[in-house]
């Protein structure tokens, strides 16, 4: 799933290519991806992309009226908000087909946005059979309920705010870092990386951390995420996925040696996902039981 570093890098990539350009056409290949009906996607053509940024793990493409704006010309801003979910991605092209993608077809394309010169624009795609990618067309990102209920951005909180968030919950660290209503931006992969780097158990209680552990977790969180953003922003969108994988130390590396201590990276699976950790670095050598409500094995 694209998380803060990937969404931030994609936003920067699209901003550098689309800001100031007119939207010429929007093709919708999957009607189920659109979660709003007013404004309509047909209000976007003729408007100009003013900026592309992110809120949490949401991509926000901001538009303002252009000289050829349609029915939505009176709206000072209309935003296309995209949540890439688990298997969504963005693909830029200078040779986009002018034939609209066929709705309901086997193509992974959900949305196609033509902007700039003919052939320029991007596809929003989703792999696999579980279609969870979502898009909203709104006058303000806060009109999206999921955004309105987000916790503060993980890179925007101070150390004291971070400590207050940890102290206000009885949840485990893994849960706190990935609960978007508590703190936004981090998902399954980077929470694994953060906790491994901080040498903390995924199942440690957030409320029990002492001041030194809070300092360590706060600084580690910022370092892991900002370094990932810097690494990805130097890449083309097409290569970001592979670059992310090469930068991971424990996530998705079950059975491989920990790059820090050499111990075997372990996995805990639950429902339809899993996470990874190093027993030596994070749990004092103890192996976590591989079930949803895990406790440390005696």
Give an account of the 3D structure:
The chain has 298 residues and is an alpha+beta fold. The protein has two domains: 145 residues, N-terminal domain of MutM-like DNA repair proteins; 124 residues, Orthogonal Bundle (Helicase, Ruva Protein, domain 3). 28% of the residues lie in helices and 20% in strands. It is built from eight helices and ten strands. A four-stranded antiparallel beta sheet has the order 1-6-7-5, covered by helices on one side. A four-stranded antiparallel beta sheet has the order 2-3-4-8, with helices on one face. β2 and β3 form a beta hairpin. α1 packs parallel to α6, α3 crosses α6 and α5 packs across α6. This is Fpg/Nei family DNA glycosylase. Keywords: DNA damage, DNA repair, DNA-binding, Glycosidase, Hydrolase, Lyase, Metal-binding, Multifunctional enzyme, Zinc, Zinc-finger. Pfam families: Fapy_DNA_glyco, H2TH, zf-FPG_IleRS. Belongs to the FPG family. Its cofactor is Zn(2+).
């Amino acid at each position: 799933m694209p998380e803060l570093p990937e969404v931030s890098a994609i936003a920067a990539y699209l901003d550098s290519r689309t800001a100031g350009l007119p939207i010429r056409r929007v093709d919708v290949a999957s009607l189920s991806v659109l979660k709003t009906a007013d404004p309509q996607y047909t209000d976007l053509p003729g408007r100009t992309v003013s900026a592309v940024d992110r809120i949490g793990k949401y991509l926000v493409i901001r538009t303002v009226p252009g000289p050829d704006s349609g029915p939505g010309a009176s709206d000072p801003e209309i935003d296309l908000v995209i949540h890439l979910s688990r298997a969504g991605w963005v693909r830029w092209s200078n040779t986009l087909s002018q034939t609209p993608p066929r709705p309901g077809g086997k193509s992974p394309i959900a949305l196609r946005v033509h902007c700039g010169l003919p052939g320029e624009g991007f596809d929003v795609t989703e792999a696999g059979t579980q279609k969870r990618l979502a898009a909203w067309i709104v006058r303000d990102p806060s009109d999206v309920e999921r955004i309105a209920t987000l916790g503060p951005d993980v890179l925007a909180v101070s150390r004291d705010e971070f400590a207050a968030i940890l102290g206000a919950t009885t949840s485990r660290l893994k849960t706190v870092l990935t609960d978007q209503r508590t703190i936004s931006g981090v998902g399954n992969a980077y929470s694994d990386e953060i906790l491994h780097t901080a040498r903390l158990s995924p199942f440690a209680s957030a409320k029990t951390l002492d001041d030194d552990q809070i300092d360590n977790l706060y600084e580690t969180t910022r370092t892991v995420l900002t370094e990932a953003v810097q690494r990805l922003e130097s890449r083309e969108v097409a290569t970001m996925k592979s670059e992310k994988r090469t930068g991971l130390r424990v996530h998705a590396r079950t059975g491989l040696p920990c790059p820090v201590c050499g111990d075997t990276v372990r996995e805990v699976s639950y429902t339809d996902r899993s996470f990874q950790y190093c027993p030596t670095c994070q749990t004092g050598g103890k192996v976590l039981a591989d079930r949803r409500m895990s406790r440390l094995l005696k």
